[in-house]
């Protein structure tokens, strides 16, 4: 696949400085805004409310990339109807009627993604390939920023790449989320990652300056 996309994870931003961070990631040429939605049930955390996503409509030129980590997925998808969201991923583990939920995402005009926890087998994609526009592989257990990559992550990215190719879906982008660090990016891209969720491990790394973090992220991809 082509150029590797960068999706800054906006839950890593201080809520009181959200717009400042937004304008910075716009200026750096980020490809989309990764917006995590958590409900305190599917994952034990609940940062950033949906109101932030709604308020972004007409306030940024960047595509909105929503990652739902919730139990009641259909409720959240329906709420976002009319917000102009570019893409929405749902966790396969959380959807009793996954096929229907994915179809619903496309019905509201968004691209549909299937998100997989680290322990979830790729075979969960077997019967929904026609319904999805991308795959999100979690490379940490979802819920919190600042974690270490789970051990099988690189093998899983490579396996997913081969899995999609073998079934004629090699064009589907693979998004990776969790500990996408300067150190991990080269191996993630080599394994087949097309879209990098950039959080505290790279763009929002507090140990270095903003411009340096951007440069190091780009250098790690190239
Ligand atoms: C997980 C979120 C973030 C992301 C943060 O769904 O998108 O928590 O992992 O990035 P890191 O792992 O670098 O802090
Ligand atoms: Zn995410």
TrEMBL record:
Belongs to the ribulose-phosphate 3-epimerase family. This is Ribulose-phosphate 3-epimerase. It comes from Rubellicoccus peritrichatus. The gene is rpe. The chain holds residues 324 to 545 of 557 of the full protein.
């Amino acid at each position: 696949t082509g150029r590797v996309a960068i999706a800054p994870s906006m839950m890593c931003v201080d809520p009181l400085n959200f717009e400042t961070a937004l304008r910075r990631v716009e200026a750096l040429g980020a490809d989309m805004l990764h917006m995590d939605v958590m409900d305190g049930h599917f994952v034990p955390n609940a940062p950033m409310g949906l109101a932030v996503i709604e308020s972004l409509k007409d306030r940024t030129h960047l595509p909105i990339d929503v990652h739902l980590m919730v139990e009641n997925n259909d409720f959240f998808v329906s709420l976002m109807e009319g917000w102009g969201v570019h893409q929405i991923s749902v966790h396969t583990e959380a959807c009793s009627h996954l096929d229907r939920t994915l179809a619903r995402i496309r019905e509201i005009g968004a691209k549909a993604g299937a998100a997989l926890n680290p322990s979830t087998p790729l075979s969960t994609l077997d019967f929904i390939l026609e319904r999805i526009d991308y795959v999100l592989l979690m490379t940490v257990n979802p819920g919190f920023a600042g974690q270490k990559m789970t051990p099988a992550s690189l093998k899983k990215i490579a396996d997913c790449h081969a899995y999609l190719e073998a079934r004629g879906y090699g064009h589907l982008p693979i998004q990776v989320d969790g500990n996408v660090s300067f150190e991990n990016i080269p191996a993630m891209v080599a394994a087949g990652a097309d879209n990098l969720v950039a959080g505290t491990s790279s763009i929002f790394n507090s140990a270095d300056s903003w411009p340096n973090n951007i440069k190091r992220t780009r250098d790690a991809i190239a």
